[in-house]
Predict the structure of Adenylosuccinate lyase.
Amino acid sequence: MTALPVQPLSPLDGRYQAAVSDLGEYLSEAGLNRARVQVEVEWLIYLTGASMFGSTPLSEEEIHSLRSLYVDFGQQDIDWLAEKEAVTRHDVKAVEYLVRDRLSTLGLDHIAELTHFACTSEDINNLSYALTVQNAAQAVWLPKLRSVIDKLQALAQAHRADAMLARTHGQPATPTTMGHELAVFVYRLERIARQVDATEYLGKFSGATGNFAAHTVADPSANWPSISRAFVESLGLVWNPLTTQIESHDWQAELYNRVSHANRVLHNLATDIWTYISMGYFRQIPQAGATGSSTMPHKINPIRFENAEANLELSSAVLDSLAATLVTSRLQRDLTDSTTQRNIGVGFGHSLLALDNLFRGLGEIDLDRDALAADLDTNWEILGEAIQTVIRAEVVAGRSTITDPYALLKDLTRGKRIGRDDLVEFVSRLDIGADAKDRLLALTPHSYVGLADELVDRLS
């Protein structure tokens, strides 16, 4: 059998690449290396700007040229690093050599020894990961989550007054509205989105064991913690003052747990919408040229929601593993996090793919109000809750002598299908006040939705 040409092993880099490509800008190997170059370059600019070890500040033109090393980072740099790492067997060292090589090209050999000065590889790596994950979360994942939230909110408003039979434990229950049920998901997801948006992206820059040992030998008079803090914060990160060789990854665990939490709420949404489609509450809008089944031409499968469900599970599996393992490092450092962190993009990628499917799927459904109405019309027994509650209130007010209203309604309705006429006859004979009786006689499954419509405004 002829061997296939080299193929992507992950579907994120193959079949689904178009849906997740924006993440590759940050969470790919190339994105990581660009961030590493950024950290190395900015450290050079910082050291020379502070005239450390007799250096002099660079000119604006020189600073611009240096920053172009990461601003214009491209395929030539990617290839150069691949060749160099094949020799060094060390990814960060290859980046250091790249920066040194470019310094020579720019005529800045005189500051070459400040490249990677007093740095352990993890000083560069932890800042680079913080920058790439921050960008991926803030510029790619969160906007896609918010697009789904916005779509849900629009649907919640559109269907705020569309009464439907609720099903607690899968059984007919007190009615609600479709808008209210969708608004619940909006509220849950928006709360998590705010938590993700408030994530602190921490960074350390303190040497081989986090103690500025080499730094203080090189210059005992410098306030290295202050320098470290200023540099980390200059990158838009939060300084971590107490670490081993590695930044402790606690912020990563917090972020991945939050994204995984969002995944699980979205999973709940996907399965609920799938169920509403199965029940006929939502019709799926046919898409031109699409095939639902290879043999049953009538079918429109809820593939968007099924695809989302599966990818959310995959994403949470990866992110849960990252959150659980990254917070542990043997003694002052081990390398288990090195290969683990290379899967951050996989975790975010499956979540982003799911969000893309949910966004599309929510735009391909239409509420069938007739189906909702038919379901309500065949379940008048759900008004038993309202009737027994009103009777209890009347008893307390001294307008009724009925004992055990709950048992009375249980005998009438439990496990039975009754209609409007049955309830009208029952209510008409009740020992309750006239106003209460009128309210109950006017009640229908369609109107028994409480404040569902108004509660949607809580999203404003």
In short: The mean pLDDT is 95.
